[in-house]
Design a protein that fits this description.
Helix content: 40-55%
Oligomer: single chain
Number of strands: 11
Number of helices: 11
Bound molecules: adenosine-5'-diphosphate, 6-O-phosphono-beta-D-fructofuranose
Strand content: 15-25%
Largest sheet: 7 strands, mixed
Strand order of the largest sheet: 3-2-1-4-5-10-11
Order of helices and strands: EHEHEHEHEHEHEHEHEHEEHH
Mean pLDDT: 96
Length: about 325
């Protein structure tokens, strides 16, 4: 067994259901390997400000099923500057922190890479509802988020159908359409609009018109945030599509709630592997899944990777919704 290490763990960026399960796995496994674990609060802010407290194995009891993050999270612009990174490094030295597990999205990975390059080994765990991290097939939080969206859209469909309306539902995803695609197909959305494709409102209206001709009188249109104004779209659908339209911006409800089994399991696996890497003195890696197997990559290389959007699934969704 290696010498006792002090291992920090933090959550950063947007929270994601399953982050607590990852914190639990990192903590329990690191303690099992003979190390001490320190919780760093509010992302990289806690590192810069020394908001760091030891966490024991019982402190992570009863959190595997809880959404949010017991370590809190934040965005920390200071960490993008050399001065912030140096302050963080100094805190690590003062607290005797030998390595850090960073749970977050690709922004947080950049922070983990920068800190690793300055001598503090970091292991990154993908945690973001957007599932937009190219080096892994899956990021913690996505399954819970799409299930939340599906539950909400099922409710919206009831009222949309009762009123013969068109519901335009905006979902999160930042610059990626994975939430819209998976939730859209699972709810039978008539049209899915994602950043990876083109927003062609004429196409949407054409589909509504042809579908109306086939007797269907209610529609679900799912769109990723940041592509277009849903209110303008609703007005155009009413004017040119001939159907009353309503808009719903689902917002932060998508980030909350108890993690699904899939998220709890993925978080436990990734947390376990992150702890094993840190134990071996390895840093500057991101853990993830490749066709179900756990893998790890150099963080800088991981940040360069690109993932193809599933056009097949996108096409299937549209072929079968009319
Ligand atoms: P996410 O991790 O969910 O992608 P952000 O992109 O907001 O979320 O990043 C979270 C935090 O990671 C930022 O507030 C900042 O502290 C850190 N970060 C982001 N980009 C960089 C960078 N280029 N260099 C260092 N740290 C960064
Ligand atoms: O990355 C997760 C996410 O929820 C994105 O889908 C969204 O664009 C963003 O974070 C919203 O961030 P916030 O409201 O916390 O600033």
């Amino acid at each position: 067994m290696s010498a006792v290490k002090r291992i920090g763990v933090l959550t950063s960026g947007g929270d994601a259901p399953g982050m607590n399960a990852a914190i639990r796995a990192v903590t329990r496994m690191s303690i099992k390997l003979g190390h001490e674990v320190y919780g760093i609060y509010r992302g990289f802010n806690g590192l810069i400000n020394g908001d760091i407290k030891q966490i024991g194995k019982r402190m992570v009891s009863g959190i595997i099923q809880r959404g949010g993050t017991i370590l809190y999270t934040a965005r920390c612009p200071e960490f993008k500057e050399e001065e912030g990174l140096q302050k963080a490094k100094q805190q690590c030295i003062e607290h005797g922190i030998d390595g850090i597990v960073v749970i977050g999205g690709d922004g947080s990975f950049r922070g983990a890479r920068d800190l690793s390059e300055r001598g503090i080994p970091c292991i990154a765990i993908p945690g973001t509802i957007d599932n937009d991290i190219a080096c892994t097939d899956y990021s913690i939080g996505f399954d819970t988020a799409i299930n939340t969206v599906a539950q909400m859209v099922d409710k919206l469909r009831d009222t949309t159908q009762s009123h013969n309306r068109c519901s335009i539902i905006e979902v999160m995803g930042r610059r990626a359409g994975y939430i819209a695609l998976q939730a859209g197909i699972s709810c039978g959305a008539e049209y899915i609009i994602v950043p990876e494709g083109k927003l062609n409102i004429k196409e949407v209206i054409k589909k509504i018109q042809s579908t109306l001709e086939h007797g269907k009188q209610h529609f679900i249109i799912m769109i990723t945030e940041g592509i277009g104004d849903v209110h303008t779209m609703a007005r155009m659908i009413e004017e040119f599509g001939g159907v009353e339209a309503r808009t719903t911006i689902l917002g932060h409800v998508q980030r909350g709630g108890n993690p699904t089994v899939k998220d709890r399991v993925a978080a436990s696996q990734l947390g376990y592997h992150a702890a094993c890497l840190i134990d071996k003195g390895i840093g500057n890696r991101v853990v993830g899944f490749d066709r179900g197997e756990i893998v790890d990559h150099d963080i800088a290389e991981a940040l360069e990777m690109k993932r193809e959007f599933s056009n097949d699934l996108y096409d299937i969704a549209h072929e079968i919704s009319f």
